[in-house]
Amino acid sequence: MGQMAPVVSRIDDPLKLRDLLGRAANLARRHELTSVVVGMAAPEGDLVFPEMLDFVESALRVDDVVFRMTRERAVLLLADVDAARAREVVERLLSDFRARFAVAREPELRLGYFEVGPGSGDLTVKDVLPALFCPEQAN
What we know:
alpha+beta, single chain, 4 helices, Alpha-Beta Plaits, 4-stranded antiparallel sheet, 4 strands
């Protein structure tokens, strides 16, 4: 019997995260469009999360972006939506995933939202990541 290939998880270049935040700030500043940065985190070793993230990425609009931090953490940029609409989009996508794919265990996701609107100014990774992944530490 042949060996199984190791599971390879695609991790994005850290510069892409800065570009993602720059894009959100640019949309707010130049076009007065609100966007939302969404943090998605699963427990370490979760086998469902990478599959779910692939599904979410395939269902997003062309203007939206996924940044994969680790196998269990990702950041999404949802352009031209406010926080309420971003929550609706994420919940719909997660519901669609659950409906289409039978999983033995429901993914234990933690979600964080950071709205970037007109007047937000420049964003740094240090400003945004605590709000997405450590809400109790965010301002």
